Amino acid sequence: MIKIMGNMGEHSKEHKKQSAFLKLANEHMDALYSTSLRMTRNQPDAEDLLQDTCMRAYRFFDKFMPGTNFKAWIFKILTNTFINRYRKKIKEPQSVDFEKVQAKFVHESDAEAGQGDIRFIDDAYRELFDDKINGAFDRLSDSFRLVVVLSDVHSFSYKEIAEIIDKPIGTVMSRLSRGRKQMQRYLEEYARDSGYIQGDRQ
């Protein structure tokens, strides 16, 4: 049942907030989900992480400064949510309904994330990487994998990544360099094992 606002002015304000948020968030939903999938490495956790991120971003949307980088802002929320709730295994995987979550943006914006079942198809993301490359990503540590994805998949700058993960730019550059080198080594092993490149001949 729709929650009745105190007056029409409050309802109109909340509706405008919802419309503005959804307009920005929907542009980045695929990127957010693909990153959630890379961070959690399984679909149920990725869906749950995405829902939690969207709910938190909406609750704090009043603090977002219009005209600034919304993508970096919401990715920072995604990263913090992952570190604080999912990487530490505080929360068990849950099934969620994104349509119900979207409805709650108006009716229960101050409530915690609801439960249900998100239906996201990750085919578009899987087209970007074959299984071996995905496997190489999964072999990276969380910190390396995150900066590689943010830089090489989503094209964030060093400065933006530093703001997202709340680390100095030097740390971002170091992790990115080391992550890329590890990826290169893993893929060279795959290419050599598959016969795409030849090992040193004696």
How are the secondary structure elements laid out?
Elements: H1 8-25, H2 29-40, H3 43-59, H4 70-86, H5 98-107, H6 123-126, H7 131-139, H8 142-153, H9 158-165, H10 169-193
Helix pairs in contact: 2-3, 2-4, 3-4, 4-9, 7-10, 8-10, 9-10
Structure description:
With 202 residues, the protein is mostly helical. It folds into two domains: 1-128, Rna Polymerase Sigma Factor, Chain: A; 129-202, Orthogonal Bundle (Arc Repressor Mutant, subunit A), CATH 1.10.10. It contains ten helices and no strands. α3 (43-59) packs across α4 (70-86) and α4 packs parallel to α9. The protein is elongated. 27% of the residues are buried.
Task: Give descriptors for this structure.
202 residues; mainly alpha; Rna Polymerase Sigma Factor, Chain: A; Arc Repressor Mutant, subunit A; disordered N terminus
Low-confidence stretches: 1-8, 90-128
- Beta-strand percent range: under 5%
* CATH domain class of the largest domain: Mainly Alpha
The string of secondary-structure elements, in order, is: HHHHHHHHHH
Strand tally is: 0
Specify the overall morphology: elongated
Q: Could you name the CATH topology of the largest domain? A: Rna Polymerase Sigma Factor, Chain: A
Q: How far apart are the termini?
A: 75 Å
- Structural class comes to mainly alpha
Assign the CATH superfamily of the largest domain. Answer: RNA polymerase sigma factor, region 2, helix turn helix motif
Helix content: 55-70%
Mean pLDDT: 75
Radius of gyration: 19 Å
Largest sheet: none
Number of H/I helices: 10
CATH architecture of the largest domain: Orthogonal Bundle
